[in-house]
Amino acid sequence: MIEMEAADDRDAAAGEYVLGMLGADDRVAFEAAMVRDDALQSAVYDWQDRLLPLSVRTGPVAPRPQLWQRIDIGLTAVLSSSDPKPRPSTPPTPRDAWWRRLAPWQALSAFAVAASLVMGVVLVEKIANRPAAGDRYLALLQSPDDRSTGWVVEVDAGRGVRLVPVVPGTPPPAGKSLQFWTKPQGAAGPTSLGLVRAGERRELPVAMLPGVGEQQLFEITLEPEGGSPLGRPTGPILYVGRTVHL
Amino acid sequence: MPTSAPTPFDYEAAVLACARGERFAFRALYERECAWLLGVAMRIVRDRERAEDVLHDAFLQVWQSAATFQPALGSARGWLYTIVRHRALKEIRDHGRSLAVDPVELGEMSDRQQATAGGDDDRGLDPHALERCLQRLEPARRDCVVHAFVDGFTHEQIAERLQTPLGTIKSWIRRSLASLKECMA
């Protein structure tokens, strides 16, 4: 069994662990010890960085393009099958924790409208407890077809805009892009906030917005690849919603 | 982590973004490192197909365990390479190693790369400190560490290659690691 009493032994074990030289039993024992032992974890990180330059001895080998596609598909599978509760080891931050609470509602897509209403209340309660950096607004972007919620927009007048997917979403068909727009109350027309990818969040500085206020419209439309050539939406609205003041 | 030039890609931020569920950061991390990581994995498993499988599994693991990365303790790249190397080692432990490449040829390849190692690296990694410290080790002891990291050899495989008793190899590796730590401190 691996010697872990003396400091030198522990450090050597950390080095051998990083190298991958511990036998199966020792490896399991070491990993169990590491969970409880911050100093041991620290020693592992030190060895990772000390030995990392040895990775230049093997040159690069370009993977085939299919590899990324496989990983991306695997990721989508992981996301759709994963337990919606926050991953236990995630250090929760006040800004992030409540977004994750959206996930359980995904299961209720059959009751999308009701779920969205309840979700809105939950979110309002969550957000109300956060320190204010400016006026805050929330919009649930829903499909005009089935009222399902696809995205949430959070506007913090002092910080910026966050567009967060509620569902993994389906990528647009070939030759099409998803474009994000906003139109404050009384504005002549929508302003583009750029292209977005299905299932990926976007954060934008507040300076990109033509204005910030209640009942401000946010929408995602299907546009030609690269975005609308006309500077205004040309394709069907996929998701749309208006802000409420929090 | 020693760096020779500031690298514009923020690995730590990318891994932290993965922990927040940002797929774009995950993609960026992949684009940035995939070729180097595939090189590392291929050297260990000796088969392109299997090395790509290793990278597939490793990247999904990166996504799922991104929240366990501790930026205060070390670099994201060190963390990333450990995940990929350990995945590759698991692959050969579980399923054996492909021997498409002759062991003797591999040894020569290793020596060649050893001779040229320490050259400029465009990835912001500075191998000089480690190389300098490796050069201070006796050649046979240096080979132990290099074979372990680069080739993923076990103590037994190194003992066989170097025609040296297993106990000696184990003690060489431990002492070599202690010397490297002291030299790089």
User: How many extended strands of chain B?
Assistant: 0
Poorly predicted runs of chain A: 84-115, 121-132
SS-based class of chain B: mainly alpha
Helix % of chain B is: over 70%
What is the gyration radius of chain B calculated from CA atoms? 17 Å
Number of helices of chain A: 7
Distance between the termini of chain B: 12 Å
Strand content of chain A: 15-25%
Largest sheet of chain B: none
From the alpha carbons, calculate the radius of gyration of chain A and give it in angstroms.
24 Å
Oligomeric state as shown: heterodimer
Furnish the topology, listing elements before pairings.
The complex is a heterodimer of chains A (246) and B (185).
Chain A: H1 7-19, H2 24-36, H3 38-51, H4 65-81, H5 94-100, H6 103-106, H7 112-128, E1 136-142, E2 149-156, E3 160-165, E4 176-183, E5 191-196, E6 202-205, E7 217-224, E8 237-242, E9 244-245
Antiparallel strand pairs in A: 1-2, 1-9, 2-3, 3-6, 4-5, 4-7, 7-8
Chain B: H1 11-19, H2 23-45, H3 48-65, H4 76-95, H5 103-116, H6 128-135, H7 139-151, H8 155-162, H9 166-184
Brief summary of the model shown:
The complex is a heterodimer of chains A (246) and B (185). With 246 residues, chain A is α+β, with helices and mostly antiparallel strands.
Question: Describe it for me?
Answer:
The complex is a heterodimer of chains A (246) and B (185). With 246 residues, chain A is of the alpha+beta class. Helices cover 35% and strands 22% of the residues of chain A. Chain A contains 7 helices and 9 strands. Chain A has helices spanning 7-19, 24-36, 38-51, 65-81, 94-100, 103-106, 112-128; strands at residues 136-142, 149-156, 160-165, 176-183, 191-196, 202-205, 217-224, 237-242, 244-245. Chain A has a 5-stranded antiparallel beta sheet, covered by helices on one side. In chain A, strands 5-4-7-8 form a 4-stranded antiparallel beta sheet, with no helix packed on it. In chain A, helix 1 (7-19) crosses helix 3 and helix 2 (24-36) crosses helix 3 (38-51). The model of chain A is unreliable at 84-115 and 121-132 (pLDDT under 50). With 185 residues, chain B is mostly helical. Mean pLDDT of chain B is 84; it is low at 1-7 and 108-121. In chain B, 71% of the residues lie in helices and 0% in strands. In chain B, helix 1 crosses helix 2 (23-45) and helix 3 (48-65) packs across helix 4. Chains A and B meet through helix 1, helix 3 and helix 4 of A and helix 2, helix 3, helix 4, helix 5 and helix 6 of B.
